[in-house]
Amino acid sequence: MKIGELARAARCSAETVRFYEKAGLLPAPARSEGNYRQYGPAHLERLRFIRNCRGLDMAHDEIRALLGMIDHPARDCGAINHLLDEHILHVDVRLRELRDLQRQLVGLREQCRAEQAVDACGIVQGLARMETAGGPARGTHLG
Questions:
Q1: What's the burial of 111, exposed, middle or buried (CB within 10 Å: 0-12/13-18/19+)?
Q2: Exposed/middle/buried for 7, CB within 10 Å: 0-12, 13-18, 19+?
Q3: Is the whole-model pTM more than 0.70?
Q4: CA–CA separation, 27 vs 77, rounded Å?
Q5: Potential cystine with 20: which of 26, 34, 64, 86 (Cβ 3.0-4.6 Å)?
């Protein structure tokens, strides 16, 4: 199948297919005499796997690790379990960060209960007074 057919079957764009190829997550396909990419069922299966992992917010490095393990099907799946356990911990951290963010936003919203001039807005004043957080805005599970 051509790239557009693969993309439709995987419910993504041709650009996404090209991106995953460049990232090394999807192997390069064979080429036709006219230099068109020619994908097979294995490409579709792998692309769906990648898209499902991304849907679970897995990073490319995590997906790459999983794909490496899949490429050796006779090995023990303990490393896969460990990878998923680490990802679950990351999700727990993100949930805490999002709850903290929500509390901050609710606190800001409470500073302006009525419509008024922008220069008197408690939200704007609160944002101007807040300490700027150092470092990355959020934690990462990749270190």
A1: middle
A2: buried
A3: yes
A4: 23
A5: 26
